[in-house]
Specification:
By secondary structure, the chain is an alpha/beta fold. The chain folds into two domains: about 15-255, Aspartate Aminotransferase, domain 2; about 255-330 and about 370-410, Aspartate Aminotransferase, domain 1 (Alpha-Beta Complex). The protein has helices spanning about 25-35, 45-60, 70-80, 100-105, 125, 150-160, 210-220, 245-255, 255-275, 310-320, 335-340, 370-375, 390-405, 405-410, and strands spanning about 60-65, 85-90, 110, 135-140, 165, 175, 180, 185-190, 205, 280, 290, 295-300, 325, 375-380. The protein has a seven-stranded mixed beta sheet, with helices on both faces. A four-stranded antiparallel beta sheet has the order 10-12-14-13. It has a three-stranded antiparallel beta sheet with strand order 7-6-11, with no helix packed on it. Helix 1 packs antiparallel against helix 8 (about 245-255), helix 3 crosses helix 7 and helix 9 packs parallel to helix 13 (about 390-405). The radius of gyration is 22 Å and the shape is globular.
Amino acid sequence: MSNVNENVLPLPSDQDSTGRTFGPEELENVAAALRSGTLTSTKGNFTKQFEQQFASQLGARFGHACSSGTAAIHTAIAAIDPQPGDEIITTPITDMGGLTPIIYQGAIPVFADVDPHTYNVTAKTIESRLSDRTKAIVVTHLFGNPCAMGEILELAKAHNLPVIEDCAQSFLTSYADRYVGTLGTIGCFSLQQGKHITTGEGGVVVTDDEQLARRMFLFINKAWGYGDANADHYFLAPNYRMSELQGAVALAQLPKLDGVVENRVRTAEALTSALRGVAGVETPRITDGAVHTFWKYCLRIDENVIEGGAVGLGGKLREKGIACAPRYIQKPAFRCQVFRDQVTFGDSRWPFTLARPEAVNYDESLFPGTFDALQHVLVLPWNEKYTQEHVDYIATSVREAAAELSRQTVEAR
Protein backbone atom coordinates (compact mmCIF):
# COMPACT_ATOMS: atom_id res chain seq x y z
CA MET A 1 0.00 0.00 0.00
CA SER A 2 1.42 3.41 -0.92
CA ASN A 3 2.08 5.97 1.78
CA VAL A 4 -0.31 8.91 1.41
CA ASN A 5 2.39 11.13 2.89
CA GLU A 6 5.16 10.06 0.51
CA ASN A 7 5.22 13.46 -1.19
CA VAL A 8 5.39 15.40 2.07
CA LEU A 9 8.72 17.05 2.80
CA PRO A 10 9.42 17.04 6.56
CA LEU A 11 10.10 20.57 7.77
CA PRO A 12 12.54 21.39 10.58
CA SER A 13 10.68 22.14 13.80
CA ASP A 14 11.67 24.59 16.52
CA GLN A 15 10.12 22.15 19.00
CA ASP A 16 12.99 19.68 18.62
CA SER A 17 16.59 19.41 17.42
CA THR A 18 15.66 19.55 13.72
CA GLY A 19 14.98 23.28 13.96
CA ARG A 20 17.31 24.33 16.77
CA THR A 21 21.01 25.25 16.90
CA PHE A 22 22.08 23.25 19.94
CA GLY A 23 25.54 21.74 19.74
CA PRO A 24 28.68 20.90 21.74
CA GLU A 25 28.95 24.49 22.99
CA GLU A 26 25.77 24.18 25.06
CA LEU A 27 26.77 20.75 26.35
CA GLU A 28 30.19 22.02 27.39
CA ASN A 29 28.75 24.97 29.27
CA VAL A 30 26.10 22.90 31.03
CA ALA A 31 28.72 20.34 32.04
CA ALA A 32 30.95 23.11 33.38
CA ALA A 33 28.06 24.51 35.41
CA LEU A 34 27.34 21.09 36.87
CA ARG A 35 30.99 20.45 37.66
CA SER A 36 31.16 23.77 39.48
CA GLY A 37 28.32 22.70 41.75
CA THR A 38 26.93 26.23 41.60
CA LEU A 39 23.55 26.33 39.87
CA THR A 40 22.17 29.55 41.33
CA SER A 41 22.81 32.69 39.30
CA THR A 42 23.37 34.70 42.48
CA LYS A 43 26.71 32.88 42.90
CA GLY A 44 27.60 31.68 39.41
CA ASN A 45 29.02 33.42 36.34
CA PHE A 46 27.22 32.04 33.27
CA THR A 47 24.05 34.08 33.72
CA LYS A 48 26.00 37.25 34.54
CA GLN A 49 28.11 36.83 31.40
CA PHE A 50 25.01 36.29 29.30
CA GLU A 51 23.34 39.40 30.72
CA GLN A 52 26.37 41.55 29.95
CA GLN A 53 26.91 40.18 26.46
CA PHE A 54 23.24 40.32 25.50
CA ALA A 55 22.90 43.95 26.57
CA SER A 56 26.14 44.81 24.79
CA GLN A 57 25.01 43.20 21.55
CA LEU A 58 21.83 45.28 21.56
CA GLY A 59 23.61 48.44 22.61
CA ALA A 60 21.81 48.70 25.97
CA ARG A 61 23.50 49.75 29.22
CA PHE A 62 21.88 47.16 31.48
CA GLY A 63 20.51 43.64 31.06
CA HIS A 64 18.97 41.25 33.58
CA ALA A 65 17.97 37.66 32.90
CA CYS A 66 14.85 36.14 34.41
CA SER A 67 12.83 32.94 34.34
CA SER A 68 10.52 33.56 31.35
CA GLY A 69 9.24 36.09 28.86
CA THR A 70 6.22 36.55 31.12
CA ALA A 71 8.60 37.29 34.01
CA ALA A 72 10.36 39.83 31.79
CA ILE A 73 7.11 41.70 31.14
CA HIS A 74 6.16 41.48 34.82
CA THR A 75 9.56 42.84 35.80
CA ALA A 76 9.16 45.78 33.41
CA ILE A 77 5.66 46.59 34.64
CA ALA A 78 6.82 46.40 38.26
CA ALA A 79 9.74 48.71 37.47
CA ILE A 80 7.43 51.54 36.43
CA ASP A 81 5.40 50.82 39.59
CA PRO A 82 1.78 51.59 38.65
CA GLN A 83 -0.77 52.57 41.25
CA PRO A 84 -3.79 50.26 41.54
CA GLY A 85 -6.22 51.20 38.79
CA ASP A 86 -3.63 52.83 36.55
CA GLU A 87 -4.02 51.96 32.88
CA ILE A 88 -1.44 50.40 30.59
CA ILE A 89 -2.15 50.43 26.88
CA THR A 90 -1.32 47.22 25.02
CA THR A 91 -2.35 45.02 22.10
CA PRO A 92 -5.18 42.46 21.90
CA ILE A 93 -3.08 40.21 19.62
CA THR A 94 -0.49 38.83 21.98
CA ASP A 95 0.28 35.97 24.30
CA MET A 96 -1.44 36.08 27.68
CA GLY A 97 2.01 36.25 29.25
CA GLY A 98 2.21 39.82 28.03
CA LEU A 99 -1.05 40.76 29.75
CA THR A 100 -1.42 38.99 33.09
CA PRO A 101 1.60 40.81 34.60
CA ILE A 102 -0.31 44.07 34.18
CA ILE A 103 -3.19 42.65 36.23
CA TYR A 104 -0.86 41.17 38.85
CA GLN A 105 0.55 44.66 39.43
CA GLY A 106 -2.95 46.03 39.98
CA ALA A 107 -3.15 47.92 36.70
CA ILE A 108 -5.77 47.74 33.96
CA PRO A 109 -4.81 46.53 30.46
CA VAL A 110 -6.40 48.90 27.95
CA PHE A 111 -6.42 47.47 24.45
CA ALA A 112 -5.54 49.48 21.37
CA ASP A 113 -6.57 48.31 17.92
CA VAL A 114 -3.98 47.08 15.41
CA ASP A 115 -3.14 47.67 11.78
CA PRO A 116 -4.77 44.72 9.97
CA HIS A 117 -1.77 44.24 7.66
CA THR A 118 1.14 44.51 10.13
CA TYR A 119 -0.83 43.17 13.14
CA ASN A 120 0.81 45.84 15.32
CA VAL A 121 -0.55 48.75 17.34
CA THR A 122 0.08 52.21 15.90
CA ALA A 123 0.41 55.72 17.29
CA LYS A 124 -3.10 56.47 16.04
CA THR A 125 -4.72 53.47 17.73
CA ILE A 126 -2.78 54.10 20.95
CA GLU A 127 -3.72 57.77 21.04
CA SER A 128 -7.42 56.94 20.91
CA ARG A 129 -7.06 54.93 24.14
CA LEU A 130 -5.11 57.47 26.21
CA SER A 131 -6.65 58.84 29.40
CA ASP A 132 -5.49 60.76 32.43
CA ARG A 133 -4.98 57.36 34.09
CA THR A 134 -2.57 56.01 31.47
CA LYS A 135 0.69 54.97 33.14
CA ALA A 136 2.59 53.34 30.27
CA ILE A 137 2.42 51.92 26.75
CA VAL A 138 3.38 48.34 25.87
CA VAL A 139 4.17 47.73 22.21
CA THR A 140 4.53 44.18 20.88
CA HIS A 141 6.69 43.72 17.81
CA LEU A 142 4.64 40.81 16.52
CA PHE A 143 6.19 37.96 14.52
CA GLY A 144 9.51 39.84 14.24
CA ASN A 145 8.09 42.91 12.49
CA PRO A 146 8.55 46.11 14.53
CA CYS A 147 5.86 48.63 15.29
CA ALA A 148 6.25 52.01 13.59
CA MET A 149 8.16 53.34 16.57
CA GLY A 150 8.90 56.86 15.38
CA GLU A 151 5.35 58.12 15.78
CA ILE A 152 4.73 55.98 18.87
CA LEU A 153 7.76 57.43 20.66
CA GLU A 154 6.74 60.97 19.72
CA LEU A 155 3.28 60.33 21.17
CA ALA A 156 4.75 58.82 24.34
CA LYS A 157 7.14 61.74 24.79
CA ALA A 158 4.31 64.26 24.35
CA HIS A 159 2.41 62.57 27.20
CA ASN A 160 5.49 61.75 29.32
CA LEU A 161 4.77 58.02 29.18
CA PRO A 162 7.31 55.18 29.33
CA VAL A 163 7.25 52.67 26.46
CA ILE A 164 7.82 49.00 27.23
CA GLU A 165 8.80 46.95 24.18
CA ASP A 166 7.68 43.32 24.06
CA CYS A 167 10.40 41.81 21.87
CA ALA A 168 9.65 38.16 22.64
CA GLN A 169 9.39 37.40 18.91
CA SER A 170 11.85 40.01 17.67
CA PHE A 171 15.50 39.27 18.39
CA LEU A 172 17.77 41.62 16.40
CA THR A 173 14.76 43.19 14.73
CA SER A 174 15.68 46.77 13.92
CA TYR A 175 13.87 50.02 13.29
CA ALA A 176 15.66 53.13 11.99
CA ASP A 177 19.00 51.30 12.42
CA ARG A 178 18.44 50.54 16.10
CA TYR A 179 17.49 47.24 17.66
CA VAL A 180 14.04 46.94 19.16
CA GLY A 181 14.22 46.80 22.91
CA THR A 182 16.50 49.83 22.96
CA LEU A 183 14.05 52.28 21.38
CA GLY A 184 11.68 52.64 24.31
CA THR A 185 12.23 52.70 28.06
CA ILE A 186 12.52 48.94 28.70
CA GLY A 187 12.89 46.00 26.33
CA CYS A 188 11.59 42.51 27.19
CA PHE A 189 12.71 39.27 25.52
CA SER A 190 11.71 35.61 25.77
CA LEU A 191 13.98 32.57 25.56
CA GLN A 192 11.09 30.10 25.38
CA GLN A 193 11.45 26.97 23.26
CA GLY A 194 10.31 28.43 19.96
CA LYS A 195 12.14 31.77 20.02
CA HIS A 196 15.17 32.77 17.91
CA ILE A 197 17.47 31.49 20.67
CA THR A 198 16.22 29.43 23.58
CA THR A 199 16.85 28.02 27.01
CA GLY A 200 13.51 26.20 27.07
CA GLU A 201 12.10 28.90 29.33
CA GLY A 202 13.77 32.18 30.16
CA GLY A 203 13.66 35.93 29.64
CA VAL A 204 15.72 39.11 29.58
CA VAL A 205 15.02 42.77 30.28
CA VAL A 206 17.20 45.62 29.03
CA THR A 207 17.25 49.36 29.66
CA ASP A 208 19.50 52.41 29.62
CA ASP A 209 17.92 53.80 32.79
CA GLU A 210 20.04 53.04 35.84
CA GLN A 211 17.21 53.44 38.36
CA LEU A 212 14.88 51.18 36.40
CA ALA A 213 17.68 48.64 36.00
CA ARG A 214 18.18 48.60 39.75
CA ARG A 215 14.47 48.14 40.41
CA MET A 216 14.26 45.32 37.85
CA PHE A 217 17.25 43.55 39.40
CA LEU A 218 15.58 43.78 42.78
CA PHE A 219 12.20 42.60 41.50
CA ILE A 220 13.76 39.49 39.95
CA ASN A 221 15.45 38.77 43.31
CA LYS A 222 12.59 39.09 45.82
CA ALA A 223 13.58 42.75 46.24
CA TRP A 224 16.60 41.66 48.24
CA GLY A 225 19.45 44.16 47.99
CA TYR A 226 22.36 41.84 47.22
CA GLY A 227 25.61 43.61 48.04
CA ASP A 228 23.95 46.43 49.99
CA ALA A 229 25.41 47.42 53.35
CA ASN A 230 22.07 46.95 55.09
CA ALA A 231 20.24 44.68 52.68
CA ASP A 232 16.54 44.07 53.14
CA HIS A 233 13.50 43.00 51.15
CA TYR A 234 12.59 46.49 50.02
CA PHE A 235 9.20 45.85 48.44
CA LEU A 236 6.84 43.07 47.32
CA ALA A 237 8.54 40.93 44.67
CA PRO A 238 8.84 37.29 43.54
CA ASN A 239 11.83 35.10 42.72
CA TYR A 240 12.18 35.31 38.94
CA ARG A 241 15.82 34.29 38.71
CA MET A 242 17.29 32.32 35.83
CA SER A 243 19.32 29.29 36.91
CA GLU A 244 22.96 28.78 35.95
CA LEU A 245 21.95 25.81 33.77
CA GLN A 246 19.75 28.12 31.70
CA GLY A 247 22.45 30.80 31.77
CA ALA A 248 24.99 28.30 30.49
CA VAL A 249 22.77 27.42 27.54
CA ALA A 250 21.94 31.07 26.87
CA LEU A 251 25.61 32.02 26.83
CA ALA A 252 26.32 29.33 24.22
CA GLN A 253 23.26 30.28 22.17
CA LEU A 254 24.04 33.98 21.98
CA PRO A 255 26.97 33.85 19.50
CA LYS A 256 24.69 31.93 17.13
CA LEU A 257 22.02 34.62 17.08
CA ASP A 258 23.42 36.62 14.16
CA GLY A 259 23.48 33.52 11.98
CA VAL A 260 20.02 32.47 13.12
CA VAL A 261 18.57 35.82 12.12
CA GLU A 262 20.47 36.01 8.84
CA ASN A 263 19.14 32.63 7.73
CA ARG A 264 15.57 33.41 8.78
CA VAL A 265 15.62 36.68 6.86
CA ARG A 266 17.26 35.17 3.77
CA THR A 267 14.84 32.27 3.47
CA ALA A 268 11.83 34.46 4.25
CA GLU A 269 12.83 36.87 1.49
CA ALA A 270 13.12 33.90 -0.86
CA LEU A 271 9.59 32.77 0.00
CA THR A 272 8.24 36.28 -0.48
CA SER A 273 9.80 36.35 -3.93
CA ALA A 274 8.42 32.91 -4.78
CA LEU A 275 4.88 33.86 -3.76
CA ARG A 276 4.80 37.14 -5.63
CA GLY A 277 1.72 37.36 -7.81
CA VAL A 278 -0.32 34.59 -6.16
CA ALA A 279 -3.89 35.87 -6.27
CA GLY A 280 -5.49 36.25 -2.85
CA VAL A 281 -2.21 35.82 -0.96
CA GLU A 282 -0.48 38.86 0.56
CA THR A 283 3.08 38.35 1.80
CA PRO A 284 4.36 40.11 4.95
CA ARG A 285 4.08 43.88 4.92
CA ILE A 286 7.25 45.08 6.61
CA THR A 287 7.29 48.33 8.56
CA ASP A 288 9.07 51.14 6.72
CA GLY A 289 12.70 51.55 7.78
CA ALA A 290 12.73 48.18 9.52
CA VAL A 291 14.36 44.76 9.39
CA HIS A 292 11.83 41.98 10.02
CA THR A 293 13.49 38.93 11.64
CA PHE A 294 10.67 36.42 11.09
CA TRP A 295 9.79 34.55 14.21
CA LYS A 296 7.01 33.26 12.01
CA TYR A 297 6.06 33.99 8.41
CA CYS A 298 2.56 35.41 8.01
CA LEU A 299 0.32 35.46 4.98
CA ARG A 300 -2.85 37.53 4.66
CA ILE A 301 -5.50 35.57 2.76
CA ASP A 302 -8.38 37.14 0.86
CA GLU A 303 -11.47 34.95 1.22
CA ASN A 304 -13.03 36.73 -1.74
CA VAL A 305 -10.38 35.13 -3.94
CA ILE A 306 -9.61 31.91 -2.06
CA GLU A 307 -12.46 29.66 -0.98
CA GLY A 308 -12.45 29.30 2.79
CA GLY A 309 -9.90 32.06 3.27
CA ALA A 310 -7.10 31.47 5.78
CA VAL A 311 -8.82 28.44 7.31
CA GLY A 312 -9.37 26.78 3.93
CA LEU A 313 -5.82 27.41 2.72
CA GLY A 314 -4.42 26.34 6.08
CA GLY A 315 -6.24 23.04 5.86
CA LYS A 316 -4.68 22.32 2.48
CA LEU A 317 -1.20 23.21 3.74
CA ARG A 318 -1.54 20.96 6.78
CA GLU A 319 -2.22 18.08 4.41
CA LYS A 320 1.29 18.81 3.11
CA GLY A 321 2.79 18.68 6.60
CA ILE A 322 3.03 22.46 6.98
CA ALA A 323 1.91 23.13 10.56
CA CYS A 324 0.34 26.52 9.93
CA ALA A 325 -2.05 28.42 12.20
CA PRO A 326 -5.04 30.21 10.69
CA ARG A 327 -6.10 33.17 12.88
CA TYR A 328 -2.99 32.79 15.09
CA ILE A 329 -4.55 33.23 18.58
CA GLN A 330 -8.09 32.53 17.31
CA LYS A 331 -9.69 35.42 19.24
CA PRO A 332 -8.59 38.77 20.66
CA ALA A 333 -7.15 38.49 24.16
CA PHE A 334 -10.02 40.47 25.66
CA ARG A 335 -12.39 37.65 24.68
CA CYS A 336 -10.52 35.20 26.92
CA GLN A 337 -12.30 34.32 30.14
CA VAL A 338 -9.89 36.18 32.41
CA PHE A 339 -11.01 39.43 30.77
CA ARG A 340 -14.52 38.50 29.71
CA ASP A 341 -15.53 37.38 33.21
CA GLN A 342 -12.82 39.26 35.12
CA VAL A 343 -11.52 36.11 36.80
CA THR A 344 -8.64 37.30 38.96
CA PHE A 345 -8.25 36.94 42.75
CA GLY A 346 -10.97 34.84 44.33
CA ASP A 347 -14.29 36.35 43.35
CA SER A 348 -13.07 39.93 43.92
CA ARG A 349 -12.63 40.85 40.19
CA TRP A 350 -9.82 43.11 41.42
CA PRO A 351 -8.26 45.22 39.89
CA PHE A 352 -11.06 45.46 37.33
CA THR A 353 -13.24 46.88 40.12
CA LEU A 354 -11.07 50.01 39.85
CA ALA A 355 -11.46 50.38 36.09
CA ARG A 356 -13.26 53.10 34.16
CA PRO A 357 -16.11 51.58 32.10
CA GLU A 358 -14.44 52.85 28.91
CA ALA A 359 -11.22 51.02 29.76
CA VAL A 360 -12.94 47.64 29.84
CA ASN A 361 -15.28 48.20 26.92
CA TYR A 362 -14.43 45.40 24.48
CA ASP A 363 -17.13 46.07 21.92
CA GLU A 364 -16.15 44.71 18.51
CA SER A 365 -16.76 48.08 16.87
CA LEU A 366 -13.73 49.48 18.71
CA PHE A 367 -11.37 46.93 17.18
CA PRO A 368 -12.00 46.67 13.44
CA GLY A 369 -8.33 46.13 12.63
CA THR A 370 -7.98 43.37 15.21
CA PHE A 371 -10.89 41.31 13.93
CA ASP A 372 -9.83 41.94 10.33
CA ALA A 373 -6.28 40.81 11.09
CA LEU A 374 -7.29 37.60 12.85
CA GLN A 375 -9.81 36.71 10.17
CA HIS A 376 -7.26 36.90 7.38
CA VAL A 377 -3.90 35.90 8.89
CA LEU A 378 -2.32 32.53 8.19
CA VAL A 379 0.81 31.95 10.27
CA LEU A 380 3.43 29.66 8.75
CA PRO A 381 6.10 27.98 10.88
CA TRP A 382 9.63 29.33 10.48
CA ASN A 383 13.09 28.67 11.86
CA GLU A 384 16.78 28.98 11.11
CA LYS A 385 17.16 25.45 9.75
CA TYR A 386 15.04 26.10 6.68
CA THR A 387 16.85 25.66 3.37
CA GLN A 388 15.96 26.62 -0.18
CA GLU A 389 14.44 23.17 -0.58
CA HIS A 390 12.02 23.90 2.28
CA VAL A 391 11.22 27.33 0.83
CA ASP A 392 10.49 25.82 -2.58
CA TYR A 393 8.29 23.15 -1.01
CA ILE A 394 6.25 25.68 0.96
CA ALA A 395 5.96 28.03 -2.02
CA THR A 396 4.78 25.23 -4.30
CA SER A 397 2.32 24.02 -1.68
CA VAL A 398 0.85 27.52 -1.23
CA ARG A 399 0.60 28.10 -4.97
CA GLU A 400 -1.08 24.74 -5.58
CA ALA A 401 -3.49 25.18 -2.67
CA ALA A 402 -4.36 28.73 -3.73
CA ALA A 403 -5.01 27.55 -7.30
CA GLU A 404 -7.18 24.67 -6.09
CA LEU A 405 -9.18 26.97 -3.81
CA SER A 406 -9.43 29.84 -6.27
CA ARG A 407 -13.06 30.86 -6.40
CA GLN A 408 -12.86 30.84 -10.19
CA THR A 409 -11.68 27.22 -10.07
CA VAL A 410 -14.29 26.24 -7.48
CA GLU A 411 -17.11 27.92 -9.38
CA ALA A 412 -16.02 26.24 -12.62
CA ARG A 413 -16.29 22.74 -11.17
